[in-house]
Amino acid sequence: MSTLIFHNGLLNDISSILNDADDYDVIIRAGDYENIKEFRAHSVILRARCPYFKNELLDQQLPRKNNMIMFDKSNITPVVFEMILKYIYTGELDLSKHLGENILELLVASYELLLLEDLFTSVQEYLIEEQAPWVQENFVKVLHTVFKLKECEKLQDYCLKSICADPQPFITSKKFPSLNKEILYGLLKRDDFRVEEGIIWEYLIKWGIKQTPGLGGVNSDRTKWSNSNYQALKKTLSQFIPLIRFTEFSPAEYFDKIRPYKDIIPTNIYDEIEEYYFKDVQPKTINLTSRIKIIESNLIKSNQANIISSWIERKDVGDLTTKYKFDLLYRSSQDGLNINTFRTKCNSQGRCIVLVKHQQSTKIYGGYNPLGFYNYSGQWCTTAESFIFSFENSQNMKISRVNTSHTNYAIYEQNVNGFSFGNTLYLSSNLNVYFRHPGYYDNNINSVLSPYLNGNFVPVEIEIFKISAP
Q: What InterPro entries does this protein's entry cite (predicted)?
């Protein structure tokens, strides 16, 4: 004979006793101060449905009144405790009727009360999927809450990833200096925390001052600090200093931002920083991974790519890492210095950035081709947006834009050659890069192409990157 199933009726009957039955034996006081409410419950159901109550209700020392077990949960608000009882008695919970703050409190309460894993997991997922706007508006509150819960990795990771997707408003907010150190550490160790390193350093110092007794307030002026003040700040920031990507700073940023705080940086790290900026010696222990990986280049770093992006925009902007994506099309050191290979990989790919390294110089030369490369057998191409640039040691970046009177000579396409910015900067079929000044680019070209103007050389490296929206 088949087994008969009557689950619906059973659930309805058990659910009804939450509000209607008079045979309760537990009174639970939830909340504190003026926000207190008493709930009537049944010990047999509490023990069956909740591991926390199963253990606690075995305590014979619990206070009683008129044979009722008196239970106090002052750390859980009445609204949240009513949600918990609804779940325990009915196995149902409509979270859409509750505020994000109450749902977050429910997450904490379900963790504390050792409720079934499905509730804890479901509340996390609901906050992520249905309460995302509220979570994002209350990142600090949510982070400080969930980082105390070991099994809350999913919501922790969601918060950190969301911050990393648009970190600037978060790191510059008034709440940032009060951020918990474990959360800050979790952010700074991430490679996808896409903030310029100079800004990270600036706000890390502000965070450290806020967190260090004796600093901040009337003693926020570092020029008045004593050696003990610097040592106290050094202790506060000791675990964070190794997470800073010091090679991402420009020399000017090093001088203005890092050098004044030399005393808080471990000697071995500071020695490597100085060697890098003064002698161009690659550090051995400092983290060299760029956080803002908008370009995977052997020749330039992300901050230079960002400057090039700002030239494309024709305006000074702080961070274009979410607007432009740089995809490598061709690299001569891995693909071979070959015109056919260059054309096969780069033709019809859209707008591109060209980078060229001279074998006897630290300078990097390049150009922006907004039209892309095509298999023309000799044709001038018109654009007012192309430019040629150069820089040395990640600084002294110079630009020469196409002359407004000669935009029809901006790009020259000849399939037996490589790139050609108006026969001003071009890769010839003989695999030499040539520098000329026929007048098609503005007079700053003399400075950009110095000291090889009217010369040619075999490049040690060429990189071509396609530029697109991410």
A: BACK, BTB-POZ/Galectin-3-binding, BTB/POZ_dom, SKP1/BTB/POZ_sf, TLDc_dom
Nearest to 77 by CA among 36, 31, 110, 37: 31
Residue pair 240/284 in contact by the 8 Å Cβ criterion: no
* Beta pairing, strands 395-401 & 35-41: unpaired
288 falls within a domain: no
Boundary-marking domain end, from 128, 160, 192? 160
β 26-32/68-73 pair status: parallel
Residues 58 and 155 in one domain: yes
Residues in the chain: 470
| Structure-block tokens of residue 258 | 């890092």
End-to-end CA distance of the chain: 62
Q: Left if phi > 0, otherwise alpha if psi is -120 to 50, otherwise beta: which for 448?
A: alpha
Q: Give the pTM.
A: 0.58
Q: Is residue 464 part of a domain?
A: yes
Question: What is the residue-wise DSSP string for 249-297?
Answer: S-HHHIIIIIGGGGGGS-HHHHHHHHHHHHH-PPPSSS----S--S---
Q: How far apart are CA 204 and CA 195, in angstroms?
A: 12
- The residue whose two tokens read 């020399």 is 251
pLDDT digits (tens, 9 = 90+) for 92-150: 888 888 898 999 999 988 888 876 677 888 888 999 889 888 888 888 888 888 888 87
List, for residues 218-241, the tens digit of each pLDDT value.
Answer: 556 788 888 999 999 999 999 999
Q: What is the pLDDT of residues 154-208, one digit of tens each?
A: 888 888 888 887 787 888 888 888 888 988 998 898 888 878 888 899 999 999 9
SS (H, E, C) 179-190: CCHHHHHHHHCC
Asked if residue 385 lies in contact with residue 370, where contact means CB atoms within 8 angstroms, the answer is: yes
Query: What is the CB-side half-sphere exposure of residue 265 using CA atoms within 13 A?
Result: 23
Select from 349, 321, 347 the least CA-distant residue to 469: 321
Asked whether 412 and 364 are in contact (CB, 8 A), the reply is no
Q: At residue 336, what is the residue type?
A: G
Query: pLDDT value at position 1?
Result: 46
Quote the CA–CA distance of 234 and 230 in Å, as a whole number.
6
**For position 279, what pLDDT does the model report?**
82
Residue 348's pLDDT is 94
Given a cut of 60, whether residue 322 has pLDDT beyond it is no
Stretch 371-387: mean pLDDT: 94
Buried b (16+ CB within 10 A) or exposed e, 266-296: eeeebebbeebbeeeeeeeebbeebbbebbe
Measured CA angle at 191 (ends 189, 195), to 5 deg: 95
Assess if residue 296 is contained within a domain: no
Residue 294 forms part of a structural domain: no
Q: Is the pLDDT of residue 342 over 90?
A: yes
Total domains in the chain come to: 3
Decide which of 264, 279, 294 is a domain's last residue: 279
